[in-house]
Specification:
The complex is a heterotrimer.
Chain A lengths: L1 H8 L29 H32 L19 H9 L3 H30 L6 H9 L6 H12 L5 H6 L17 H26 L3 H9 L4 H12 L1 H17 L2 H7 L8 H9 L6 H31 L1
Chain B lengths: L2 H4 L13 H28 L3 H7 L11 H9 L2 H32 L5 H13 L6 H10 L16 H25 L3 H9 L4 H12 L1 H17 L2 H6 L8 H11 L4 H21 L1 H10 L5
Chain C lengths: L19 H7 L9 H7 L21 E6 L4 H18 L2 E6 L2 H6 L1 H6 L5 E5 L2 H8 L7 H7 L5 H6 L9 E6 L2 E6 H7 L7 H13 L3 E3 L8 H24 L7 H13 L12 H9 L3 E7 L3 H7 L1 H6 E4 L14 E2 L2 E6 L6 H12 L1 H10 L4 E2 L11 H12 L3 E2 L2 H4 L2 H4 L4 H10 L5 H14 L1
Parallel strand pairs in C: 1-2, 1-3, 6-7, 9-12
Antiparallel strand pairs in C: 3-10, 4-10, 4-11, 5-7, 5-8
Helix pairs in contact in C: 3-17, 7-16, 11-12, 13-14
The chains are: A mainly alpha, B mainly alpha, C alpha/beta.
Chain lengths: 328, 300, 452
Amino acid sequence: MADRVRESTAPALPDQQVGRAGVAVSEPRRRRRYSLLTGRDKLVLALMVGVPLFFDIALIWGPTVASFLFSFTNWNGIGGITEKNIIGLKNYESLFTAYQFFWPALQHNLIWLGFLMFIATPLGMFMAVLLDREIRGTRFYQTIFYLPVVLSLAVIGIIWSLQYAPEQGFINNALGRTGNDNLIDWLGNPDLNLWAALVATSWRHVGYIMVLYLAGLKSVDPALREAAKVDGASERQTFMRVVFPVMAPINVVIVVVTTIEALRAFDIAYIINGGKNGLELLSTLITNNSISESSRVGFGSAIAVILLVISLGPIVIFLTRMMREDRR
Amino acid sequence: MTVATTTAGRIPVARRRIRLPRIALYAFLTFMAVTWLFPLLWAAFTSLRPYGETLRNGFISFPSVISLDNFGSAWTRGEFPQFYLNSLIVTVPAVLLTLLISSMVAFAVSRFSWRFNLFCLMLFTAGNLLPPQVIIVPLYRLYLLLPIPPPLSDNGLLYDQYFGIILIHVAFQVGFCVFVLSNYMKTISRELTEAALADGAGVARIYWNVILPLCRPALAALATLEFTFIYNDFFWALLLMKSGDRRPITSALNNLQGQFVTDTNVLAAGALLAAIPTILVYIALQRHFISGLTLGSTKG
Amino acid sequence: MANPDTPLLPPPPGPSTVTRRDVLKGMAGVAGLASVPALLAACGPGATPSTGGAGASAAGSGGSITLGSNYSDEVPKKVLQGIVDTFTKNTGTTVKVNTVDHSTFQNQISSYLQGTPDDVWTWFSGFRMRFFAKQGLATDISDVWAKVDSKYGEAFKVGSTGDDGKQYFIPIYLYPWAVFYRKSVWAEKKYTIPKTFDELKTLATKMKSDGLIPFAFADKQGWPAQGTFDILNLRQNGYDFHVALMAGKEKWTDPRVKAVFDKWKEILPFHQEGAAGRDWADASTTLLQKRAGMYFHGMFTSQQFQTAGQADLDDLDFFPYPDFGTQYDAEKALDAPIDGFMLSKAPKNLEGSKAFLEYLAQPATQVTWVSQDKSNIAASKDADTSGYSPLQKKAAEVIGSAKRITQFLDRDTNPEFAGPNGMQAFLLDFIQNPDKDLAVLQKKIQDFWDTL
């Protein structure tokens, strides 16, 4: 069953050779195909997976474990790690109770998440729903909304600084607030700059979500919508009761993507002011503590581990969904 | 009122009556589009005006002088040719390698059932979702330790090498591409592989001559996406490269911000110059972008 | 990180009476101002660096060295290239300059030095220098110092010495932090230079009513405000307390520190608004555009004026921060950061690098530098100051007459303390919320120090 559904929604390929009579044959999973694979074949396959796997572990998972181990030391990067560098949970203790920038950073990451999840992502979904109709110029609109996604965050940071600059930026000039006594300090005021950064980030995020959702909408079986219309459902009812539930997998992807983007936030805050004065984020704390003039590798790694643990949430959700998909 | 919409797509455009909700929709979309484009347009507008002129007339004013001087200035003072080259040297090999490697993994994982299929897939995908800051510190240390022979490295290490940056990009992006490609490959009938194997073809041949050509749409889509992701990256080169003149354009923008801080208009020109390649790629290959992003996520 | 027990800054001269000997010992900069005529004779206009003997060093012809430079701004970048080219012409040793953005270079200095640093690298004097020397990330250059010792005043040698008594740093130039203003604007509004803090306040009030921003101010990068803290602390509590505070021997919760913040609160209302979002160069532009009356900053602010034009540069002047009426006024202390070069821990071309450092130590090299980048003055006491601009001459005079100089907060203390999630953040908090409870702020600072 699952195979058939997949076949019908697969993009039509001009030169794909569909199997016998174009019908997918569900094979019993346990059919022995190994007899067709030569020893050499098996080796090639092993290499095809093994070598990339090796690099993946060496460059990503290995360092992840290393971060975890470093977090139990007070190493500063010079010389080797000796017995007396190992301090157990002291870094975490210091982080939670004494380090004054940790909780604000965590708070900012959560605000980042909330903003993206409840404002930017819904807006993206809304735009996708709007553009899913038959209207003229849908491609044109899509292009415009997606354009920020192809820009580097460094570029986005600069473009928005032209908006936010106190005396030369567009916003203050438009509002007439460029005098010394009525300036709005968008990037310097810690009560404002996080929101300013979030608006700049959302400018990009909305387009990204929009495209994901739009594709999902387009892949919904038109027959379902037809049926709903025939039953007399309004547009909104159709969406809420029929389309949205069917899009459950896409919705999960979007939630996961949004969460990951919020946890990864770094570039814009760093470009604006290096991650201080209201723009502290877990990611900037890590770099400012361990790869900057300060080289507190152990301490920085503790922050990295916290970030890792928080990130595991959405990652596990995504992987679980993947597992369930695979079993179907 | 709802009659027209139930047969949406079946009624020819000409016969649809203009109704208030439609007008409201268009108006809203136009408003949003203008708002969305505005920051970019403003940057373009500012970059075309000489700084002195904006100081005299104010930033929100009708320009008395328009020139491309700022672009020329950014180009030379910002040493753009060098940085474009750096970006190219990093991005193109990285994209090719990523596609090659992930297609191989996807092939092995989707065509044949192994015990650890799913596990591998999950490992790769999770690797892509990890925030880079989690691993930057040990990675930096690793880059200083691994000995790398001359053609790939001119200082014996991965640190401060194009190859080092390419490698981490590939490692990070392979996860996403494997996910997308394996989903895509699953739609290719198993019969194909069976038949080819029965004919005596080796798996390598099947991969290269049979499966890969069939994946062209997906590969094209991923190529455009990956080009954008890798070109736009700011983080890796910032911390894994020390040579100012080897950094790609996006990491170099940080420098430019410091250099041109009092010359907003030149900075705007510089930012736009940095953005042009991806904008061009996007406009030319738009179709592929959309399909690339959605290939991975719309299955099921 | 343990703090060094030895004082970070040039040792104070002997007790009260100001003798010429004291003046020569305790200060940095051109102590030999009194002997300018002698200098003029020594360094003729045609003096070239090679006469210093650097060219004849064992580097031989050929060979190359690498140089990590944070001179990313256009003027200094060009100047450095010129210096480098002359060195190559004289010795045949090529120098590959690796320029990194100024603040990025500093931000990543630790990973840079631990990684694959260039043979020679630009850096600063003070704790910041000793910090990395102590970690073994710099090479001992006492032998180079032995050759150039006579060219520097004692304070410079002290500033170049690590905790182990060996030298690691070659000073090339320095500059004062002072209050800058435009002569034409002051002449027009008939302002006079304030001698005391109260006069400064009065002047600021008058400027405000005249429609000028009294103090241009920017603190987006976080370090500019540290300059204000330094000078206020030096005036209010004296050099010894300041040094001890930087070293962690005095506490930030001390009532004397509170007095500094209180003094700051008195003039903060006269500072430019929106400083937290403003780059220092933009504040400089405010002064350039005659919208501000004064700018307390380092002399490199003149680079903006130099780019704007000779007329603007000629119009720029400065005065040292006014007195507070305490006994510390006599110290005439100020921040006069010294920039220079160091050797990394394992340079590929040791001989060539040392030759380059020796070349940099030559008075003539330094004079070439500061004659093009007029925002600094040469570090060598034998430098020919006859070509100095009026601003440079004044700088030499002010630094010369100072009994105590400091290097600037983020160079005088632990870099982990002074960084963006550290002292920069605390001062940003203060300047945006000066009326919050100071005791809380002070405790925050001290607590942070204690965690390091």
